[in-house]
Amino acid sequence: MKSSTRIILVRHGEVKGIETPRFRGSADLPLTERGLRQSELTRDHLLYLGVAAAIYSSPLRGCAQTAAIFGQSQAVAVNYASELNDIDHGLWRGQTHDDIRRSEPLGFDTWVANPEKTQFPGGESLQSAADRALVTLSVTRTASVGSTILLVSYDSIIRLLLLHVLGLPLARYATLDVAPCGISVLLSQKASWRVRCINETSHLMRLG
Fold it and tell me: Can you tell me the distance from the alpha carbon of 19 to that of 147, in angstroms, rounded to the nearest whole number?
């Protein structure tokens, strides 16, 4: 597939509080020490996959720091795209799942059972987040045909992009898992997509 464009989706490294299920949304959180190490190991692994023609990243700190580490070794400047920001959880932002389960049980139950029907109060829906993220995906798939592009974003956004490429409905959102610095590889040729891998994390095994 000589004319195919390879798009590598990478979630940012670990940020503070990531292990507690929480609606972080657009919170501007820096990487932890572990997150920095994850990003460095991912940087080294990405070099085996080839040199990137461009890097696109959310401008928020966790992603921006991760992308900057990749950019140094790839010798490529980072393009910041707010379309790659995490879902805006609105009034739920910063609260744990347990918090919302207690304060808004009906809303939380809808999120768990039918995420595609959830409109976060004062925030976004999955559809609106997907629409904006797909703008960047569309731009990157045609910007450098035959090249490799890195997209650094959030768990939620990568899930939404994968659902789109796989032709799956937003109702399947919870079936995908994307770990910190997990790598997913897409191949684009003309109007078709192929998925080479989803959430590859073997490069992080030495961290335990």
Answer: 35
